[in-house]
UniProtKB/TrEMBL annotation, chain A:
Native organism: Blastococcus xanthinilyticus
Residues of the 2Fe-2S ferredoxin-type domain: 3-79
Keywords: 2Fe-2S, Iron, Iron-sulfur, Metal-binding, Oxidoreductase
Protein name: Xanthine dehydrogenase YagT iron-sulfur-binding subunit
InterPro entries: 2Fe-2S-bd (IPR002888), 2Fe-2S-bd_dom_sf (IPR036884), 2Fe-2S_ferredoxin-like_sf (IPR036010), 2Fe-2S_ferredoxin-type (IPR001041), 2Fe2S_fd_BS (IPR006058), Aldehyde_Oxdr_Iron-Sulfur (IPR052914), Beta-grasp_dom_sf (IPR012675)
PROSITE patterns (UniProt xref): 2FE2S_FER_1, 2FE2S_FER_2
Automatic annotation (TrEMBL), chain B:
Keywords (A to Z) from UniProt: Oxidoreductase
Domain (FAD-binding PCMH-type): residue spans on this chain: 1-231
Name this polypeptide is given: Xanthine dehydrogenase YagS FAD-binding subunit
Tagged with keyword GTP-binding: no
GO molecular function, a single term: oxidoreductase activity
Length: 169, 337
């Protein structure tokens, strides 16, 4: 069964007709040609499909496109503006925070979300005092990024990259 | 994925009518569990009714000093609310111990308690499962039972071929905290509105393991209320899992303590968030010494039924849950000035 929807992807309004079963991930990749979100597990377990959905990091494999008609979506592809990489993308390059790169677009989108959540004072599971402003320690970043798996295990460089990018904010 | 019709009604009443009129219809909110089930074939609805934007997303103070969580508020928003940190830290801690940042941004107050068991056999449509396909039997008995129940199961070892057998656990962390807080669930359904004590929302398998809750078909959660707590009440959530982050609980404990009263809810041990009423009764009014807590938990766990299975079954949960309760209560009483 089909439905007409509009998605605003990386700043551009895109109209499309989707089968109601289509995930946001498949709509982006297969219908709109934006292959930056990756299909890892397709079950919400790996984080490779992470996008910013209405400003917050979310898993595009667990979102039905039809349920997000009108949504504002930012993918890793849309983070760079006017040929300039996003600070998180630059930090990943400088810290060599990847090997094969498959999980990287999801890691980058997730990190952008993490930095914003920090800025808003959101605590995490490892925050000792819920009411204090959390600090961007290694443990905080590791906990907050735990939904993004890296099969190459580049975590040792991903975590400092996120800390670097946060410090520049 | 099986084809389905999709509807986004204009309001809650219309959503209830649409689901009530189609026996094979489901509500969709954050979708973090349902969309996966659509893909796995665990859920095969004819009609999906989107209610994510229909219920309130607000978190509001109640006149009695409590807090109302609109059903559409996300797990992230509730965990980031200063009033929750200050008045109900057990709930913020439970939410933050669950899932990941991405999932918490999607998952909702109304949806989280209605997520379904992560029993691997329930999620594998090639294996018999009384919860997924009533009457087919239970594949978990004698199998991979590390995440399965020890409480609320029949006293003797269950018969894997019996239609009522189910040793699954409820996976939500949030629900364990809500059980300890004596939260109240507001719903609207074909029969009108009602309020259900959170501890009565989930059910034991009984003779129908396919039903996780007492909600009727077409009944929708609209809000969850947190009752006020006496001044000086302390609360905490402690979760034990196989890895430090992003894993379901082997066991978890939500505890709420004020002068002379203690409330304890357990996760990872039963088909529902388990209020340790027997232990609470024994501890009420007395000092929460290590010895008293251990004795109370011995009584609570007297009827526990460890399940044999691969990797030596799940008998490890009996001492683990007793120790975790003791550690949680120790943390809360040591904090006392």
């Amino acid at each position: 069964m089909d439905a007409d929807i509009t998605l605003r992807v990386d700043g551009e309004a895109r109209r499309l007709t989707v089968d109601t079963r289509t995930s946001l991930l498949d709509a982006l990749r297969e219908r709109l040609g934006n292959t930056s979100p990756k299909k890892g597990c397709d079950h919400g377990q790996c984080g490779a499909c992470t996008i910013l959905l209405d400003g917050q990091r979310a898993l595009s494999c667990l979102a039905l496109a039809v349920a997000h008609d009108g949504a504002e979506i930012t993918t890793a592809d849309g983070l760079a503006r006017d040929g300039e990489l996003h600070p998180v993308q630059r930090a990943f390059l400088e810290r060599d925070a990847f090997q094969c790169g498959y999980c990287t677009p999801g890691q980058v989108c997730s990190a952008v979300g993490v930095i914003e959540e920090f800025a808003q004072g959101w605590p995490s599971h490892v925050t000792e005092d819920l009411t204090a402003d959390p600090e961007m320690t290694h443990d905080e970043v590791a906990e907050r990024m735990s939904g993004n798996l890296c099969r190459c295990a580049a975590y040792v460089n991903i975590t400092p990259a996120v800390q670097d990018a946060a410090a520049q904010r | 994925m099986k084809p389905f019709a999709f509807a986004r009604p204009g309001d809650v009443a219309e959503a209830v009518r649409e689901v009530a009129a189609e026996p094979n219809a489901v509500f969709l909110a954050g979708g973090t569990n349902l969309v996966d089930h659509l893909r796995l074939g665990v859920a095969r609805p004819e009609l999906v009714v989107d209610v994510r934007t229909l219920t309130s997303r607000e978190i509001t103070d109640l006149d009695d000093g409590g807090l109302r969580l609109g059903a559409a508020s996300t797990n992230s928003e509730v965990a980031a609310d200063r009033r929750v940190w200050e008045r109900y830290p057990v709930l913020a801690q439970a939410l933050l111990a669950g899932a990941t940042g991405q999932l918490r941004n999607m998952a909702t107050t109304g949806g989280n308690p209605l997520q379904r068991t992560r029993c691997p056999y329930f999620q594998d449509v090639t294996t018999p499962c009384n919860k997924r396909e009533p009457g087919t039997g239970c594949s978990a008995v004698g199998g991979y039972v590390r995440y399965h129940a020890i409480l609320g199961t029949p006293g003797a070892l269950p018969d894997p071929t019996a239609p009522e057998t189910c040793i699954a656990t409820h996976p939500s962390d949030m629900a364990v905290a809500l059980a300890a807080l004596d939260a109240r669930v507001h719903t609207i359904g074909p029969a009108g509105v009602r309020t259900i004590p959170f501890v009565d929302l989930h059910r034991l398998p009984g003779d129908d393991p396919s039903r996780d809750t007492v909600l009727e078909h077409g009944e929708l959660i609209t809000a969850i209320d947190l009752p006020p707590l006496p001044e000086g009440t302390r609360s905490a959530y402690r979760k034990v899992r196989d890895r430090a982050s992003y894993a379901f609980a082997l066991v978890s404990v939500a505890a709420v303590v004020d002068d002379g009263d203690v409330r304890i809810a357990l996760g990872g041990v039963a088909h529902k968030p388990w209020r340790a009423s027997r232990a609470e009764e024994i501890l009420r009014g007395g000092p929460l010494t290590e010895h008293a807590v251990r004795a109370a938990m011995d009584a609570e766990l007297a009827a526990a039924q460890p399940q044999p299975g691969v990797e030596s079954g799940n008998g490890f949960k009996i001492p683990l849950v007793a120790r975790t309760v003791a550690a949680t209560l120790r943390g809360l009483t040591e904090e006392q000035p």
